[in-house]
Amino acid sequence: MQIYEIIRQRRSVRTFEKTKIDQTVLEELKEYAKQISNPWNIEVRFVFMDAQEYGLSSPVLNGEPMYIAALVDRVEHGEEAAGYAFEKLMLKAVSMGLGTVWIGGTMKRENFEKACGKADHERMPCITPIGTPAKMSLKEMMMRKGVGADSRMKSEKLFFNEDMDHPLKTDNMDIHDALEAVRLAPSAVNKQPWRIILKDGLYHFYEKHTKGYLSDAVGDMQKIDIGIAIAHFDLVLKERGYASELIISDPEIRVDEDMEYIASIKVLR
Ligand SMILES: Cc1cc2nc3c(=O)[nH]c(=O)nc-3n(C[C@H](O)[C@H](O)[C@H](O)COP(=O)(O)O)c2cc1C
Q1: What is the pLDDT of residues 240-261, one digit of tens each?
Q2: What is the helix (H) or strand (E) element at residue 177, kind and residue range?
Q3: 99 in contact with ligand 1, CB cutoff 6 A
């Protein structure tokens, strides 16, 4: 299946069959995890953990046989790199029929950090369960309702041309779909903090901050959301035959006070 379709069909999975993951599937996923790169060139390492062996659980999950933890050094742009790389891994898992969900809050963090062997110089911003998706539990349905998980903001509120006064319109279906892939991305508490302004041929990504997402253990959780969004944008463009280059240079466009410039993407044919 095409990556664009996988992105469109993906949803957080919190209820799993108790069955173990097929060994060949698991090995393929582990091999894939080893070669994931990100445009910040910051190493993100992945640790696979058996739920039973390490006694790991999360109050929002049921039946999950395994977890993956993502670890990254405490460096500038570490959150974006982790978001980008971990989303690539999660989409690969989804393409192989597995369920995933980003978990950054609803788990006993210290248990997971110990189990995955996090070093002092590292952060373990998030984990995901992996396993075969099962029928959604009532708890899961309620949780989705609570955060409005099935809805997303309209594109005119997210994507702009030149400045914040002009919504971005494009006739290029590839760019349209890459933007749609950003709009459909998962984000912490479904806050959708990504904003994009197209100016001088560059897609400038901004973070629209919500209070309460900064912590020593994670860094800035909403920067992870932006990393995920850039991964979606990139993956769809790559699938359509474009190359992209990440540039970090603030174009100094006048934006809302709660918006922070993160990175720009140059799309190349
Ligand atoms: C960085 C990040 C952290 C998240 N943390 C949690 C979490 O701790 N617990 C949880 O149940 N869901 C968590 N989520 C999942 C979001 O709630 C979910 O992606 C969002 O509601 C949209 O739903 P969807 O993924 O089904 O499209 C997190 C998502 C992201 C991107």
Answers
A1: 999 999 999 999 999 999 999 9
A2: helix 173-183
A3: no
